[in-house]
TrEMBL record:
Organism annotation: Ferranicluibacter rubi
Protein name as it appears in the record: Large ribosomal subunit protein bL9
Listed InterPro entries: Ribosomal_bL9, Ribosomal_bL9/RNase_H1_N, Ribosomal_bL9_bac/chp, Ribosomal_bL9_C, Ribosomal_bL9_C_sf, Ribosomal_bL9_N, Ribosomal_bL9_N_sf
BP terms from Gene Ontology: translation
UniProt keyword annotation of Ribosomal protein present: yes
Function noted in UniProt: Binds to the 23S rRNA.
Alphabetical list of Pfam families matching this protein: Ribosomal_L9_C, Ribosomal_L9_N
Length: 191
C-alpha cells in the first residue's frame, strides 16, 4: 500500500514522501496514529493544502522535545531491585519501568518512547535510548542496584559484580596456577 507520510517516521521516510509499506503496517500503525494518509489524488491535494500547518506543528513538537532533551540528556536514574549474589535480578527492568522512573522525576516520557531491545536483567549502569521526537534521541543511564547505598557506590564507579565485591576476594590475586599445577607430580600408585 502506498501512503503519504504526515511526519518523519524512522527507517521509512520524511514528511510528505509517498512510500510503499505493507498493508498491515499501514492499517494497524500508520493510519490509526495519524502518521500517514493513503496515497490517492484526494489525499495528496489535502496534504498539500495542510502542509504548512503540519510542518509548523512538527517544528513546535521538535522544539519542545529539544528543550526536554537538554534537561534529560546524560542524566542517571536509580532503580532498586532484588538481586542474587552474582548480580542477576530476580525480575527485570523493562521499558515500562524506565518510563515510570523518568516520569517520577518530572519528565513526560511514554514507554513507547523508550528504546530498550532487551529488558535489563543484572545490576549495574545501563545506557538507555529515549526517542522524544522522530528527530530527537537522547541517552540516559539506568543505575540498577539492590539498595540506594549500592546505587551510590556504583555511580562512583565501583564494580559491584566483581569477585572482590561479591566474595571479598581480590581478582588480581586469583591466578589459575594457584589452584592447579600441571607439572606437579602425583603419587597414584594403586595396589
Amino acid at each position: 500500500m502506498d501512503v503519504i507520510l504526515l511526519e518523519r517516521v524512522a527507517k521509512l521516510g520524511q514528511m510528505g514522501e509517498t512510500v510503499k509499506v505493507k498493508d498491515g503496517f499501514a492499517r494497524n500503525y500508520l493510519l490509526p496514529l495519524g502518521k500517514a494518509l493513503r496515497a490517492n489524488a484526494g489525499n495528496k491535494a489535502r496534504f498539500e493544502s495542510e502542509r504548512a500547518t503540519l510542518e509548523a506543528r512538527n517544528l513546535e513538537r521538535k522544539s519542545e522535545a529539544q528543550a526536554v532533551a537538554e534537561q534529560l540528556d546524560g542524566k542517571s536514574f536509580n532503580v532498586v531491585r532484588s538481586a542474587g549474589e552474582t548480580g542477576q535480578l530476580y525480575g527485570s527492568v523493562a521499558a515500562r519501568d524506565v518510563a515510570e522512573v523518568v516520569a517520577a522525576e518530572g519528565f513526560n516520557v511514554g514507554r513507547n518512547q523508550v528504546d530498550l531491545n532487551n529488558p535489563i536483567k543484572s545490576i549495574g549502569l545501563h545506557p538507555v535510548k529515549i526517542h522524544l521526537h522522530a528527530e530527537v534521541e537522547i541517552t540516559v543511564t539506568m543505575n540498577v542496584a539492590r539498595s540506594a547505598d549500592e546505587a551510590e557506590r556504583q555511580a562512583k564507579g565501583e564494580n559491584l559484580n566483581s569477585a572482590d565485591a561479591i566474595y571479598g576476594v581480590d581478582e588480581d590475586a586469583l591466578r589459575p596456577e594457584d589452584f592447579f599445577n600441571p607439572e606437579a607430580e602425583f603419587d597414584n600408585d594403586e595396589e
